[in-house]
């Protein structure tokens, strides 16, 4: 089943530190930019919503046509945002939790500057594998 | 090689599980490492304020990581959104993991609304340090102040955090107080959240 999905990690200072198109559908030329635009527009909503609850998984917070934005906020206010068209809430929550563990391992590296881009190719491989598994 | 057992070798840190880790670290090893950190920074700076700032920055990096790790490991993925919540998180959970005990006391400042104090009879990092007279009010607890600032900043509660010596009658060594002064926006948001 083909599905579109765009995953980005945005740091505390609203700078994207990781981006990946993880859907299984064929990628259109302009789709990537549109996805990023939608995700950035949703950042405002996330900011308000993050202070109303102490949970990390914020479920679906915004819609665009038939695409839904789901967000997961970590303790350090790093946001994992997923733009998708499926309705698989549990799968998405598990995906976020696994990526959260990977992110913590990256963060624990003393030579990694928090808020800078994640460049590890191994991290990229693992995120894509997790996306195939859960989404 | 000493100590090589049948440990599974992971090719990359991302594959290793995020374990609870060793609960205890050698105090003398840490004291040596910390003293080297202070001595190294002493050679790089001309004045005390700069030295304090460098120690604080070193602590800030630790604080940012400790916040994420502890919230994931010990708090079951729940974030702190309220002021008192994050303060008690620092006072108990962070202190317990870093120093093996909860902080001695957490007080609210009487003169200003935005000031809070965490006090400790003897900070672990200061245990083997004595300050020469000509360094005045310098406190190596600036490292711990940096850790607290890293935790608060990461959680969205920007604050100015400093470490001070408070002389106590009847005790030879003064008590150390970490003074936390929150930024305006934190108080406004707290008031808004009710």
Automatic annotation (TrEMBL), chain A:
Q: Name one GO biological process term.
A: endoplasmic reticulum to Golgi vesicle-mediated transport
InterPro entries per record: Longin-like_dom_sf (IPR011012), Sedlin (IPR006722)
Q: Name one GO cellular component term.
A: cytoplasm
Q: Which Pfam families match?
A: Sedlin_N
Q: What is this protein called?
A: Trafficking protein particle complex subunit 2-like
Automatic annotation (TrEMBL), chain B:
Say yes or no: keyword Lipid metabolism present.
no
- GO CC field: endoplasmic reticulum; TRAPPI protein complex; TRAPPII protein complex; TRAPPIII protein complex
**Main localisation, per the record?**
endoplasmic reticulum
Q: Would the keyword ATP-binding turn up in this protein's UniProt record?
A: no
One GO BP on record is: endoplasmic reticulum to Golgi vesicle-mediated transport
Question: SUPFAM superfamilies, alphabetically?
Answer: Ligand-binding domain in the NO signalling and Golgi transport (SSF111126)
* Keywords, in A-Z order: Endoplasmic reticulum, ER-Golgi transport, Golgi apparatus, Transport
Q: Which residues form a coiled coil?
A: none
Question: What subcellular compartments does it reside in?
Answer: Endoplasmic reticulum; Golgi apparatus, cis-Golgi network
This protein's source sits in the domain of life called Eukaryota
Per the record, the similarity remark reads: Belongs to the TRAPP small subunits family. BET3 subfamily.
Q: How does the annotation summarize its subunit structure?
A: Part of the multisubunit TRAPP (transport protein particle) complex.
- Protein name (Swiss-Prot/TrEMBL): Trafficking protein particle complex subunit
Q: Which gene encodes it?
A: LOC111299353
